[in-house]
Amino acid sequence: MSGTKEEDRKSSSEWRDFFWNPRTHELLGRTATSWGLILLFYLVFYLFLAGMFALTMYILLLTLDDYKPTWQDQLATPGMMIRPKGDQLEIVYSVSDAQSWDGFVQNLNSFLSPYNDIYQVQTNDNCPPDQYFIQEDSGEVRNNPKRSCQFNRTMLEECSGLSDHFYGYSRGQPCILIKMNRVIGMLPGKDGQSPYVTCGAKRYKVDKDEWREDSDKIGPLAYYPPNGTFNLMYYPYYGKKAQVNYTQPLVAVRFLNASLNTDINIECKINSNTLSTGSDRDKFAGRVAFKLRINEK
């Protein structure tokens, strides 16, 4: 027992001496001079690393353009999206239940508020259609901010939410807005031919070797603006900072007599004489697919 106590005292004494040795004036095994030298080394070392990082970032920032990406990995075909956005690109509602479609209406109202005609007239230009609105810089002199063309809400006609405040949802004739993703410098058409949107039944797999489509359920469609075009005057896009008031063109599709109480799988795609057809590897390149279900009750 006494041997154990003596060993404990010896071990405790060794730990105290390691933390602070009064004979050698060492703290944690190092003298004040040793601690000063090692702290000085690490201070210089980390200051050098911080300086190298700051210099690298400074040189990198010198190569960047505030208005245009230095490197742009442009897709062959831009992506597309719809509004209103339902869960997992599904527009499901009941005509008789206003609460089921009120969220879609509010979403469209909010989305279209910058497109009001009064705001567009005040901020954007009335451009000649069917030709690019090119605004080149003059050498090193920036032509910024660049102007933008008007896209008035009234151009969506029956899907503008002005004549029909419920966008057709209360009558079982819903409007879906389609937009094409912005790509700086993209020219989506040539020879005065604007790209346009077409919607139809999407083929989907129901069995190992069986495919199906819902073409008999869609019914007639109406497109706004006419022919569902993205007019060339809204291109090219110069970037958010250079073109601060840019208004993205839209296409509205109205389902005039879609089948009720059934799922309808729909695909809308862009048609252009310059943009390549989207790849199966990217489901949103040049197209967007969604499910529509209009319940009667």
UniProtKB/TrEMBL annotation:
The lineage of its organism: Eukaryota, Metazoa, Chordata, Craniata, Vertebrata. Belongs to the X(+)/potassium ATPases subunit beta family. Its main location: membrane. It is found in: Cell membrane; Membrane. This is the non-catalytic component of the active enzyme, which catalyzes the hydrolysis of ATP coupled with the exchange of Na(+) and K(+) ions across the plasma membrane. The chain crosses the membrane at residues 35-61. It is a single-pass type II membrane protein. One of its GO terms (biological process) is intracellular sodium ion homeostasis. This is Sodium/potassium-transporting ATPase subunit beta. One of its GO terms (molecular function) is ATPase activator activity. Keywords: Cell membrane, Disulfide bond, Glycoprotein, Ion transport, Membrane, Potassium, Potassium transport, Signal-anchor, Sodium, Sodium transport, Sodium/potassium transport, Transmembrane, Transmembrane helix, Transport. The gene is atp1b2a.
